[in-house]
Design a protein that fits this description.
4 helices, transmembrane helix, mainly alpha, 79% helix
Length: 131
């Protein structure tokens, strides 16, 4: 049981640390340019991306032995799920004023790309049977 929990715990803690650092840098840059810090659903974006990355990793981890050949497709399905969540929950709010500005785009894409990079690293380890 411990061997099952350890990689999941490592991923979740590392993801939380990395996203926290990225979030801090994101806020620092917004502050530097005198942009509003907590608009554009920035907190929701980081939380949703964290939760989805965590859920996707858990699914991949538990499916790794039975569906090793399909793990890449399951991973891509997880990315599709993230974009689905974006288009259902974030896009309508961002589009309310008729256009999506750069700050709105970055508030979703920065945590998305951060999670994607970390997920990709861990999925490659799963595929190479290192987890």
């Amino acid at each position: 049981m411990i061997n099952t929990i350890k990689p999941i715990l490592q991923f979740s803690i590392l993801l939380l640390i990395v996203l926290s650092i990225v979030f801090g840098i994101h806020l620092a840059i917004l502050s530097y340019f005198n942009y509003p810090l907590f608009e554009n659903m920035i907190i929701a974006s980081y939380i949703v991306n964290y939760l989805l990355a965590f859920i996707i990793f858990i699914a991949l981890y538990f499916l790794r032995k039975k569906y090793l050949d399909l793990l890449g497709f399951i991973f891509m399905g997880g990315s599709f799920l993230k974009f689905g969540v974006f288009f259902i929950f974030f896009f309508p709010v961002f589009k309310q004023n008729g256009e999506i500005n750069t700050l709105e785009s970055v508030s979703f894409l920065l945590p998305y790309i951060t999670c994607l990079i970390l997920e990709t690293f861990y999925v490659s380890r799963l595929l190479n049977n290192k987890l």
